[in-house]
């Protein structure tokens, strides 16, 4: 009796959570296709078969919905390919780029919202600014670990190289969205090979671990 009553009480909450998820998934598609500015709440409501008034019960404003979409996109992007487990930083970057080719909708969403976020007052501006700052720090730390192992090539500055990896990745993704013959992963691998020595070449600190970052690169 007690467990049945508890299940009944939880039912409406589970249903509400499912409806919220379906709204966010619909918004992912709408914003990826039309951008935040071009996609409307009515577009999202139509995709889930509900009225805009009902949608506002779950997300009071379009801004609230956008933040939920960004959170969901980051959640999906944090999934690391199984092939990357135990592999080093440059390999995980390349593996992530390959995985991104299988989720073009997320890449489109990232690219469109990132471009729009450059405008003053856009609700995603702080999200992308913080994201870039976090990635720069993460990648620079990974490069410093590689440097301590003697794998960073002479003259490479970890902070500038970190920013360059992000810039290259975003630029290559934009080209790939327009022309699928562009090989994102190969372009990234070429650049990483210019700044990082192969794993066999280690310095005096070669027994130092390389860390476990790079789960969520740009657009991923």
Characterise the protein shown here.
By secondary structure, the chain is mainly alpha-helical. The chain is 68% helix and 0% strand. It is built from nine helices and no strands. Helix 7 crosses helix 8. The longest helix is centred in the N-terminal third of the chain and has 37 residues, at 2-38. The protein is elongated and about 60 Å long. The N and C termini lie far apart (46 Å). Mean pLDDT is 85; it is low at 203-213.
Topology (SSEs and partners):
Layout: H1 2-38, H2 41-48, H3 52-58, H4 62-77, H5 89-100, H6 104-116, H7 125-148, H8 158-178, H9 184-195
> What is the H/E order?
HHHHHHHHH
Helix percent reads 55-70%
Structural class, please?
Answer: mainly alpha
Rg measurement, Å: 21 Å
Low-confidence stretches: 203-213
């Amino acid at each position: 009796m007690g467990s049945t009553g508890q299940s009944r009480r939880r039912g409406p909450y589970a249903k509400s959570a499912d409806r919220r998820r379906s709204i966010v998934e619909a918004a992912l598609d709408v914003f990826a296709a039309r951008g935040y500015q071009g996609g409307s709440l009515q577009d999202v409501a139509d995709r889930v078969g509900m009225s805009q008034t009902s949608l506002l019960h779950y997300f009071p404003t379009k801004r609230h919905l956008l933040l939920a979409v960004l959170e969901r996109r980051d959640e999906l992007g944090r999934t690391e390919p199984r092939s990357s487990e135990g592999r080093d930083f440059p390999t995980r970057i390349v593996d992530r780029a390959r995985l991104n080719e299988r989720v073009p909708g997320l890449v489109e969403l990232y690219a469109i919202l990132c471009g729009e976020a450059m405008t003053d007052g856009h609700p995603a501006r702080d999200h992308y600014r913080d994201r870039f700052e976090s990635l720069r720090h993460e990648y620079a730390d990974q490069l410093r670990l590689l440097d301590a192992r003697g794998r960073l090539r002479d003259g490479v500055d970890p902070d500038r190289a970190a920013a360059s990896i992000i810039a290259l990745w975003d630029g290559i993704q934009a080209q790939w969205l327009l022309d699928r013959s562009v090989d994102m992963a190969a372009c990234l691998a070429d650049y990483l090979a210019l700044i990082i020595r192969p794993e066999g070449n280690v310095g005096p600190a070669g027994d130092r671990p390389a860390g476990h970052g790079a789960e969520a690169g740009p657009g991923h």
